[in-house]
User: Fold AB hydrolase-1 domain-containing protein from Mycobacterium pseudoshottsii.
Amino acid sequence: MRDLLSVLDIERVTIIGHSLGGGVAMQFAYQFPQLVDRLILVGAGGVTKDVNVVFRLASLPMGAEALALLRLPMVLPTVQLAGKVLGMALGSTALGQDLPNVLRILDDLPEPTASSAFTRTLRAVVDWRGQIVTMLDRCYLTQAIPVQIIWGSRDAVVPVRHAEMAHAAMPGSKLEVFEGSGHFPFHDDPARFIDIVLRFIDSTQPPEYDQAALRELLRTDGGERTVSGPADTRVAVLSAMGSDERSAT
Assistant:
């Protein structure tokens, strides 16, 4: 992403990251804060180690081969039909709500470059144990960057408790939860989503990058004093920070 911005001659950006892209956005803001005006996280991965079992399975060696099967004749339509039947059976459950959007994503995966990019991105941050790259212990470093978190209350891929933990660990962040929405709140209520994003951009100012302040934050190492929110959320965040969920960067 940094190289792309350099090629396009773009000095600073507001980043919106969804799902796995949310994890990429958080890591980018951590590694290159001088390039980030604002950060918007939507149903983002990379908050803590916990991740949907489907992602864990897809990260295994046979995961790429399974995606390659989608390129065979009639395989993708069969999978989509089975998914639609399962979605109807699950009805209004969280998983049933997210299935149609997941099936739309499958439309793009038979393209070799798309499936290869998905597999490489997934394996860089997820293995059979869960997410191996998280930012929870470094969230406090974003306190100078305006952060908007958007989540669906019925997200079956990345549960809404991840949003609450990220909000608690990121000083000054804003949290919007779409009640009844799943992993794709921008599909469920696009007008509200756009309104939140535009209001957030209009109401915030890009930070001045301060290397000395960042250095001091790293020296103090954040910790309990940077975590806010309800007691149970604080306990969950601090517990994750003290576990093996350390940022790979």
